[in-house]
Design brief:
The protein is of the alpha+beta class and about 475 residues long. The chain contains 11 helices and 8 strands.
Length: about 475
């Protein structure tokens, strides 16, 4: 059944191709709309090269051969929504956050009383000698004790503070992991979309040049053309085919990355949709962007929290190494036939105990200095992270400026190339332009559109990189645009 449908589809394509032979090559163009998120809009009729039936069939087959019929690419927002819920890195960070939350309860539990229960049953025989009778009996005993920490000079409180700070750090790490994954997903999606569009442009260029070369070769065969024009067309064709090969290779790499991030292959270009670039979320100045990053960047917040955790370690070390511990203990003990004595015995005890351990090698000072140096190391790492984030912001800002200017120039180039082609076509009708001139103009226009499309993707990526460095790259950014 599938074979029958395929044959019917090819036959239908052949009929369209035959009917479109007389269609003007500029009747329908590739149009790009910023309002539609740089989607390919408008009908796609790739000029007169579609008159080559084998070229058209190859185009249709090649654009679908790389994808399973069951795969349908979702819009970027939908792909990212699934990604941040199911990716292993997110699940691992969420598990770390839950573990840190449980550790808070563990630390707070150090202020709760502890109940200890010990019981035993066995056999005891005592050989007493002299006139005392030997004993042989099964002793039983049960001991229960309840102990309560009264004061440890801040060690337990510092441990609770450390657990809470560790939980805060795990939350910052979760946010950082999510935003990093969102950026990876956006980059993978836009690269897959960009490379597929570039393949369309490259195929259009190849098909156009090939068709013109065939027409010129036919004129030479009839004696009305020039062999040099044929050779020039073949030269242009070789360059266009090289560009197509490069585009296909770039798409393969982008597809591999897409598969690694999302877990499946990218769909065809017509099923992919990227929202509008969120320019409104970018601050007006680079200084404002740096200020936002210093406040909201989750990786920077995690580094600052690590320094506070190290400060809590110093407090714990001071309390444990230089101060005693005060505990209250209540204990009751029941014994029967124990220690060679027949009968029952009960003991009750309540005490307040002060304990203090001190190493005579004065290693407490080494432990304290080690904690202080650890705290200093984390503070320096935090300062280094601030410098790194500021550099990241400045680089992202400069990359955005460069990408914007480049996109503007390339878009202007494409517009000029289109105007030149229209004028060249009129001059061709008057006999003032050769066919090769028209061919080169068409090729330059296609390539200019391709470069402009790629540059607009670079602008979008630069914006998302800047938002990521600021700590503001969340799913809402995509949903709102």
């Amino acid at each position: 059944m599938c074979h029958v449908k395929a044959i019917a589809l090819l036959f239908h394509l052949w009929r369209i191709i035959v009917n479109d032979r007389q269609v003007s090559r500029w009747e329908s163009r590739l149009a790009w709309s910023e309002d539609e998120g740089n989607r390919l809009v408008g009908p796609f009729k790739p000029f007169r090269w579609i008159g080559n039936s084998m070229g058209a069939v190859c185009l249709c087959v090649s654009l679908t051969a790389g994808f399973s019929a069951s795969i349908s690419a979702a819009p970027l927002v939908d792909e990212i929504s699934v990604l941040i819920e199911t990716h292993n890195r997110i699940l691992a960070a969420q598990a770390d956050e839950r573990a840190a939350r449980e550790q808070i309860a563990v630390s707070e539990g150090d202020w709760n009383p502890e109940l200890s229960v010990t019981t035993s049953y066995g056999y005891e025989r005592q050989l007493k000698g002299n006139a005392t009778a030997d004993t042989s009996m099964p002793p039983r005993d049960l001991t229960m004790s309840l102990s309560q920490l009264l004061w440890d000079f801040g060690s337990t409180d510092a441990g609770i503070d450390k657990a809470r700070l560790t939980h805060n750090q795990s939350q910052s790490t979760l946010v950082s992991t999510r935003q990093s994954l969102i950026l990876e997903g956006i980059s993978a999606y836009l690269e897959a979309l960009r490379t597929q569009k570039l393949i369309l442009f490259a195929r259009e260029s190849v098909g156009n040049i090939r068709h013109q070369a065939e027409l010129e070769d036919s004129r030479v065969q009839r004696g009305s053309g020039f062999t040099t024009d044929v050779l020039q067309a073949k030269t242009e064709l070789a360059g266009a085919e090289a560009r197509l090969v490069a585009a296909i290779g770039a798409f393969k790499v982008a597809a591999n990355r897409y598969r690694a991030v999302f877990g499946h292959d990218p769909g065809p270009v017509e099923d992919m949709y990227a929202p509008m670039t969120p320019f409104a979320d970018i601050p007006e100045t680079i200084e404002a962007s740096i200020e936002v990053a210093m406040r909201d960047n989750p990786a920077l917040d995690a580094a600052a929290t690590a320094a506070r955790i190290a400060r809590a370690d110093i407090n714990i070390t001071e309390a444990d190494e230089f101060y005693p511990r005060l505990d209250a203990t209540a204990e009751t003990s029941y014994q029967e036939d124990a220690e060679g004595t027949v009968g029952e015995k009960t003991e009750n005890l309540f005490k307040v105990e002060l304990s203090y351990d001190f190493n005579l090698g004065f290693t407490a000072y080494n432990t304290l200095r080690a904690s202080e140096q650890g705290h200093l190391a984390f503070e320096k790492r935090y300062e280094d992270e601030k410098d790194r984030v500021e550099e990241q912001i400045r680089n992202a800002w400069d990359n955005l400026d460069t990408a914007r200017l480049r996109a503007d120039h390339l878009t202007n180039q494409a517009n000029i190339a289109g105007e030149f082609l229209e004028l060249a076509q009129r001059e061709r009708e008057l006999g003032n332009r050769s066919l090769i001139d028209i061919l080169q103009a068409e090729t330059r226009l296609i390539n200019a559109n391709s470069d402009a499309t790629s540059a607009r993707t670079d602008v979008a990526l630069a914006v998302y990189n800047l938002l990521s460095a600021m700590g503001h790259l969340e799913l809402d950014v995509l949903v709102e645009n």
